[in-house]
Amino acid sequence: MTVATVPDMNPPRRKSFYKRNEIALTPWLFLAPGILFFAIYVIIPIFQSFNLSLYAWDGLGEARYVGIANYQELMTDRAFEVSLWNNVKWLAFYLLAIPAGLFIALFLNQTVVGIRLYKSLFFFPFVISQVVVGLVFAWFYNPSFGLLNTILGWVGLGPINVLGDPTMVTYGIIAAGLWPQTAYCMILYLTGLNAVDPEQIEAGRLDGAKGFRMLWHIILPQLKPATFICFVVTIIGALRSFDLISIMTNGGPFGSSRVLSFYMFEKALSEYGFRMGYGAAIAVVLFLIMLVFIAYFLFSMFREERGH
Amino acid sequence: MHSMLKASIAALATTAVLTGGALADGHGEKLSGDLKIFLDTSNPAPRATMEDMIARFGEMHPDLNIETTIIDREAYKTQIRNFLTANSPDVATWYAANRMTPYVSAGLFEDVSDLWAEEDIATNLASTKGAMTIDGKQWGVPYTYYQWGVYYREDIFNELGLEEPTTWEQEKANCQAILDSGRKCYTIGSKFLWTAGGWFDYLNMRTNGFDFHMELARGEVPWTDDRVRATFANWRELIDMGAFIDDHQSYSWQEALPFMVRGEAAAYLMGNFSVPHFREAGLTDDQLDFYQFPAITEGLELAENAPTDTFHIPANAENKDNARAFLRFVVSADNQTLINNGENLGQLPVNASSSVDNDEFLNQGFEMLSSNSPGGVAQFFDRDFPAEMAAEAMQGLQEFMVFPDNLDDILTRLESVRARVY
Predict the structure, then answer these.
(1) Are strands B303-305 and B376-378 parallel, antiparallel or unpaired?
(2) Measured by CB atoms within 10 angstroms of the end CB, which terminus of chain A is less buried, N or C?
(3) Looking at the complex, does the CB of residue A260 fall below 8 Å from at least one CB of chain B?
(4) A270 vs B399: CB contact, 8 Å cut-off?
């Protein structure tokens, strides 16, 4: 059985492949440069680090495959344990910048003469470089001429050597880090406070809310986006707390103020380091910790997007 | 007798002719082409010295196109790995002894044993040959070195009627007298760790001798060995006396200088590079003096630290002949006299035929190293020990200085590092 089909003498003009898929393709075309560079500079290095962490390599000779030996060594490495704990301390105490920033923002959110000047003075520490902040605090803590011991002397305390005492040193550096970070959170909250709806405050006031109840039930819910951003930048700031440590203590005394990023640098890239594989293993652990937060942030933003 | 004298004169004359010939050879032959030099001498004085030296070399060889790059001293330590593997210069600075090992074993430094076989270099540079040798070959040439020792406040010693100690008992008696006068015996800033390494070097070399110290550096002796413990026991005597300034773990070595300048501490175990700093701070040569670290174990030959800075030819260099000519020029007697004088580096020349600048501290250092260091000459803790071992160990040394009771823990930790590193 044969069916003779009459060929269509006038086929519709076939559009080009691009024209047919324009809607689907165009976004990808625009995204392409971004994806390309993100892949080269972020995604691929992540996998390279994973790979490198399975080798013993001094950066010069042949890399030798050692399996998970680097990770096994990490498990018994006390310096690593100290660094990990310091990272936890950083994450926990650095978050103090959020309530402190909120408090200062509420305090500054009023109209008096010269308030702009006060605001900029409070914002000042965020503008200066972390290196300068580190130096200033290192001098502040200095046991021979530091201001801290002078002040403690007035009330009959001290002297203490914050940066020379392994139990205090991390807290001392976190305190230095809180100074600019509080200013950062403050400015985020100040912009958030501008957007607070005065009518809701009015309504709350009519219902008899004031003081802390007003703050908790009326103001804070409206500041939720600002709080979220504060949380994000503070967590990120805590995890990359490298420069302050490097300036103030160089990881010391005897390694008690190191965090993972600093330990990784010391093992892989510093003067006496060049254990690339071991450094990569530390970096992988740090990445996994960050991944928890990154996943949470992405999830929150995704939920936010869908909500609208 | 007569013929012997004649023979000696003849021999001397031959040497003179040979040396003269070699010199003429080196200077007469005009070089051409390129010469790319990388330097880590980024501090102002050494930088000027090096630039001047290269300019003089350039004048001798007008057709030679010299390109000099000066890199920050700290940054250089990490960058050298990159430029030795790709885009090599023809000449690069570095440090002697174990610090060369990674590059020698990776085949990145050129074997320059041929230079060391030349009469002129073989005779005049013999004292530093050991520090440049790995596996029986030489991998570069030194250009300067300096002594370590105890720099002290002469006026404080005079005030208390103390003399330069030569034994450990005297040292401790002096220290007690200084402590009784309300001062500290030694200033030190151990924030960047290596200063504690200097103390360990001396205490260990004086307690157990140079050979033992080197065995430890090569990983042949466990850190938990009783002899190592003896070294720490001696150190502990000073720590328990309160000999060192408080809170030294918070200071860099420069930040520890004011304690001595203000007279709050009487002495500083340091390298000779600290002298210009003392002078700038206002100490005159009447107030500042130097003594060799005293003997501890009787009958042990004294040994010293004398870190040596060096020039090397990278294996991937393109103009190795020019580079060799430059190295010959660097170590030549006249150049060594010039670049190490007080107006330039202010350190000791490596060439035995050079003259040492007339400076109180250089003279004492030269005297000490040439006649009173029979045990041997070490480089420095972080140059003799492999980098990884040095990093962990210096951290342990700092911890020991702050918490001497942690010694057992520190030594066990170092022993496990030793098991892994070597």
Answers:
(1) parallel
(2) N
(3) no
(4) no
Considering only alpha carbons, which residue of chain A is nearest residue B410? A254
| Dist CA B248 CA A161 (whole Å) | 10
The pLDDT tens digits of the residues spanning B318-366 come to: 999 999 999 999 999 999 999 998 788 889 998 888 888 888 898 899 8
- In angstroms, rounded to a whole number, what is the distance separating the alpha carbons of residues A38 and A167? 40
Across the A:B interface, residue pairs with CB atoms under 8 Å apart total: 69
Q: Which domains does chain B have, with CATH numbers?
A: 32-145+307-367 (3.40.190.10), 148-305+386-421 (3.40.190.10)
| Cβ contacts of A270 on chain B, cutoff 8 Å | 78
Q: With contacts defined as CB-CB under 8 Å, which chain B residues touch A58? A: 102
Q: Which amino acid appears at position B337 of this protein?
A: T
Q: Give the pLDDT score at B21.
A: 38
- Interface probe with A: pick from B83, B246, B249, most Cβ of A within 10 Å: B249
Mutate to test the interface with A, among B247, B407, B409, B414 (most CBs of A within 10 A): B247
Would you call B250 and A271 a contact, using CB atoms and an 8 Å cutoff? no
B170-214: per-residue pLDDT in tens? 999 999 999 999 999 999 999 889 999 999 999 999 999 999 999
Of B78, B85, B395, the CB nearest to A60: B85
Residue A164 near chain B (CB below 8 Å): yes
Smallest Cβ distance to A252: which of B81, B103, B398? B398
The answer to whether the CB atoms of B191 and A273 lie below 8 A apart is no
Nearest to B64 by CA among B93, B37, B82: B37
Domain that holds residue A211: 77-307
A252/B396 CB distance under 8 A:
no
pLDDT at residue B10 tops 80: no
The answer as to whether A49 is a domain residue is: no
The domain total for chain A is 1
- Residue B251 tokens read as 């200071």
pLDDT tens-digit map of B272-303: 988 888 988 999 989 999 999 999 998 899 99
DSSP string, B58-125: HHH-TTEEEEEEE--HHHHHHHHHHHHHSS--SEEEEESGGGGHHHHHTT-BPP-HHHHHSHHHHHHT
* Residue A308: pLDDT band with limits 50, 70, 90: low
Closest to A253 (Cβ–Cβ): which among B77, B391, B402?
Answer: B402
A147 in any annotated domain: yes
Closest residue of chain A to B85, computed from CA coordinates:
A60
Residue A141 lies in a domain: yes
**Is residue A6 a part of any domain in this protein?**
no
Cβ contact B78–A271 (<8 Å)? yes
Minimal Cβ distance to B250: which of A161, A254, A275: A161
pLDDT of B33-54, one tens digit each? 899 999 998 888 889 999 999 9
Task: With beta carbons less than 8 A apart as the criterion, state whether B178 and B246 touch.
Answer: no
Name the minimum distance, in Å, from the CA of A251 to any CA of chain B. Answer: 9
pLDDT digits (tens, 9 = 90+) for B265-277: 999 999 998 888 8
Considering the entire predicted model, what is its pTM? 0.84
**Domain holding A163: CATH number?**
1.10.3720.10
Interface test with A, best of B250, B253, B413 (most A CBs within 10 A): B250
Cα–Cα nearest to A267, from A48, A56, A66: A56
Measured from the Cβ of residue B211, the count of other Cβ atoms closer than 10 Å reads 14
The model's confidence at residue A38, banded by pLDDT at 50, 70 and 90, is very high
Q: Which CB contacts under 8 angstroms, 24+ apart, belong to B41-50?
A: B41/B70, B41/B73, B41/B93, B42/B70, B42/B71, B42/B72, B42/B73, B42/B76, B43/B73, B45/B276, B45/B344, B45/B345, B45/B346, B46/B344, B46/B345, B48/B344, B49/B339, B49/B344, B49/B345, B50/B339
Q: What is the ipTM of this complex?
A: 0.81
